[in-house]
Amino acid sequence: MLTDAQIAQNTPMEHITKVAESIGLDSEKLDLYGKYKAKLSSELLDEIEKSDKKGKLILVTAVNPTPAGEGKTTMSIAIGQALAKIGKKGILALREPSLGPVFGIKGGAAGGGYSQVLPMEDINLHFTGDFHAITTANNLLSAMIDNSLQQGNPLGLDPKRISFKRVLDMNDRALRKVVIGCGAKADGVMREEGFNITAASEIMAVLCLAESTENLKEMLGNILVGYTYDGRAVFARELGAVGAMATVLKDAMKPNLVQTIEHTPCLVHGGPFANIAHGCNSVIATKAALGLADYVVTEAGFGADLGAEKFLDIKCQKAGLSPDAIVLVATARALKYNGGVAKDDLKNPNVEALKKGACNLEAHIDNLKKYNVPLVVCINHFYADTDEEVAAIKEIAENKGVKAIVCKGFAEGSNGAVELAQEVVRLADSGKANFTPLYNFDMPIKEKMEKVAKEIYGAAAVNFDAAALKTIKEAEELGFGKYPVCMAKTQYSLSDDMKALGRPTGFTLNVREVRISSGAGFIVALTGTIMTMPGLPKKPAAEAIDIDNDGVIVGLF
């Protein structure tokens, strides 16, 4: 049996201009990056913005992730390919993979089997350089902060109250807490510093929420970098860094156009994590896709408690988007894992464990129904799944009033996703969507966090550390009280305890720290033990990645 990488490498790609033609795009409106990648030009983006065309928006989300993998991106791609198969004009809008997970525990993130986006290796590695541009813009601001301290500190910044951190697109736990400025006087002011992973950078969030260069510069300028000795908030615009940062991000702002294995179009742009950031591709890419196709399939990171909640409550509200249908991906393996089955035994039939673990699926169905958008459950089919297990999932979903459809997109590509695509089109065209966010931005910050914790995670109570309460008070005093909240939480559980599987109840969610992302326009709550700079696992995926003398890359999956 071929590996994902072999399937991708054995698939002849079409020139990206031909892929563009399938959705009516003139090749002159593309900025080409070789034969198989392109960016949408500024001219094209302007034309789309002025157009009245608006397609239907379909969100793909999932149950909580498990070590067996749920295949949310793979299912998204399968639906995108199947839309073309049934004669619909569709386009995918996905996130860019981070090198951290690629070299860490997850491996590649461009789909799998016969539902992948190509060129797989490029997308998983440096792609068009967007992540590098974000890293550079972030660290330029950091360098200018420290240069200001070195050059007489004209802003009066307190080195102990600088909140803006450096970033690196790598899982490197050694950089979580560092001391900089060691050495001679010319080497800078000594202070404690730390690194986040690039996907958690506020610059990443800004790029994914900004809708124009003007908007980008305004948001960059609004980034809170720290406080003065007398407690005054200091913003990036005061350091004179905004123009240079926006210049670095000039090309990174443009969505990337690639193709699936079946040559259907896909925009891949932006890559914030959903467990420590807002987990959605860029607003620019999503709106461009809506202006180019009749149906837009997008996904939000990790489980629906993280990615979908942030897509719906942050991205949709801020950008004025309204989804027309939601697809909730589940697997028999995930439900069995939530029912207590060990990873090594997930291939074995176990309907009783599946039914026990189905409470996780039921929780996500209940949560998504609160947004008043038509919903379908996608059963991502694995070869070892039995008919009894599939029938059990369908019954569980139907008892919740939701249809469940098997998708074999991994093994069969578009042919395995036709029924699901037809149902997605039916739901999107039904006119039944009446999108209702979970909370109103006018609610106090603490209440918004409590609402997400109780209504989405199922918490009985929320405990705020004193430091978190202090930052919430500062945020409200600075005029940021009407910002949405971005909850940073483990992806493996509905709670803040990664080991609490199924549908935990009666627990207290612990908010240990709050961060003000005034540039991105949201307030981040760090819960439990979540880290914004992950570490590598005992056996990193990087150990399996190699390149041979002919330039063929192996081990990305």
Helix/strand layout:
Elements: H1 4-9, H2 16-21, E1 30-32, E2 38-40, H3 42-50, E3 56-62, H4 72-85, E4 90-94, H5 99-103, E5 111-112, E6 115-118, H6 120-124, H7 130-150, E7 157-162, E8 166-168, E9 178-180, E10 191-193, E11 195-197, H8 202-209, H9 213-221, E12 224-228, E13 233-235, H10 242-248, E14 256-260, E15 265-268, H11 283-292, E16 295-299, H12 304-319, E17 325-330, H13 332-338, H14 351-357, H15 359-369, E18 375-380, H16 387-399, E19 404-407, H17 409-412, H18 418-429, H19 445-457, E20 461-464, H20 466-477, E21 485-488, E22 508-517, E23 522-527, E24 546-547, E25 553-554
Parallel strand pairs: 3-16, 3-17, 4-15, 4-16, 8-11, 17-18, 18-19, 20-22, 21-23
Antiparallel strand pairs: 1-2, 2-14, 5-6, 6-14, 7-12, 9-10, 12-13, 14-15, 22-23, 24-25
Walk me through this protein's architecture.
Helix 4 (72-85) crosses helix 18 (418-429), helix 7 (130-150) crosses helix 8 (202-209) and helix 9 crosses helix 10 (242-248). The longest helix is centred in the N-terminal third of the chain and has 21 residues, at 130-150. Strands 1, 2, 3, 4, 5, 6, 14, 15, 16, 17, 18 and 19 form a 12-stranded mixed sheet that branches. Strands 20-22-23-21 form a 4-stranded mixed sheet. Strands 7-12-13 form a 3-stranded antiparallel sheet, with no helix packed on it. The protein is 35% helix and 19% strand. The protein is of the alpha/beta class and 557 residues long. Strand 18 (375-380), helix 16 and strand 19 form a beta-alpha-beta unit. The protein is globular, with a radius of gyration of 23 Å. The model has no long low-confidence stretch (mean pLDDT 96).
